[in-house]
Design brief:
Blueprint lengths: L1 H22 L4 H19 L3 H14 L4 H13 L3 H14 L5 H17 L3 H14 L4 H14 L2 H14 L4 H13 L3 H16 L5
């Protein structure tokens, strides 16, 4: 599950900036400049030029202090460069600049920041962000699973199991969720349930699941 979380973080910010760019209403010249910036950042990201993304995004923020997409691009580049604390700071700045009525964008930024809190071992902060994300946009299997992982690391096994139950109900095709629930069930002495979850995860990974 930790590997899956890392992969989610590494791609999520691209979805965020793509969504937010479609919401922007800018004067024509400024819009063209922002479009060129976005195109260049995506190109540099695909090339693995993360420091260049950081540098260009910093320049964009100096020119346009409320440039939401620039904070998101820089957050992704910081994360890929192994600087999660700086990425968290940029996601926080992005939250402060996101339109108050844009619940979807705020929810996804909260999720991205929560995953980074989790990566740095700040599970209480991660749970808070996942709580807020689910309050803003409920019914997300991935967020329930991510919160379960932090609750598990935090030692709240009962709540972690409840989150995994919900996550699996929403998406019964994710083997990582079954494997984490198996660990929790084994710790709680639920051996039969743990073995069943491991079997389900194995069948999903082998492509032999029939549900």
């Amino acid at each position: 599950l930790l590997i899956a979380v890392f992969l989610i973080i590494s791609t999520l910010f691209m979805l965020l900036v793509g969504y937010i760019s479609t919401k922007a209403v800018l004067p024509s010249r400024e819009s063209l400049e922002v479009d060129e910036y976005q195109r260049r950042m995506i190109e540099l990201t695909h090339m693995g030029q993360h420091q260049a993304v950081i540098d260009h995004s910093t320049e964009e923020i100096r020119a346009r202090p409320d440039a939401l997409a620039a904070y998101l691009h820089r957050a992704g580049a910081y994360q890929r460069s192994g600087e999660p604390d700086l990425a968290i700071a940029d996601y926080t700045a992005a939250l402060e600049r996101s339109p108050s009525g844009d619940v979807l964008a705020q929810a996804e930024i909260l999720y991205a920041r929560g995953l980074l809190w989790q990566q740095t071992g700040e599970h209480e902060m991660a749970v808070r962000d996942f709580d807020d994300r689910l309050a803003a946009a409920p019914g997300c299997a991935a967020t329930h699973a991510a919160r379960a992982l932090s609750l598990f690391q935090w030692g709240d096994l009962q709540r972690a199991q409840q989150d995994l139950n919900i996550s699996i109900e929403l998406n019964p095709h994710e083997p990582d969720a079954y494997e984490l629930r198996a660990r929790i069930r084994r710790t709680l002495g639920q051996s039969d349930g743990a073995e069943l979850d491991l079997l389900r995860a194995k069948r999903l990974r082998e492509g032999t699941a029939d549900w």
